[in-house]
Specification:
By secondary structure, the protein is mostly helical. It has one helix at about 1-65.
């Protein structure tokens, strides 16, 4: 009986530790997701900027002709 209580208390401690590890991992992955989303937004803005520059350059070439 005492061995069973000891085993269950160890199992409980392991589960609490595992829960905190999973929570920390979840928080870490959420921050990575936010960072990647921001990077995608920056990349899209940069692509739009480059496209606008290309359009302006082409318009200047057309106006010179």
């Amino acid at each position: 009986m005492l061995l069973l209580i000891y085993f269950l208390s160890i199992l409980g401690a392991v589960l609490v530790l595992l829960t905190s590890v999973v929570k920390a991992l979840n928080s870490f992955l959420a921050s990575i997701t936010v960072t990647l989303t921001e990077l995608v937004n920056v990349q899209q803005a940069f692509t739009r900027y480059k496209n606008e520059q290309r359009k302006r350059k082409n318009l200047k070439k057309k106006n010179r002709r």
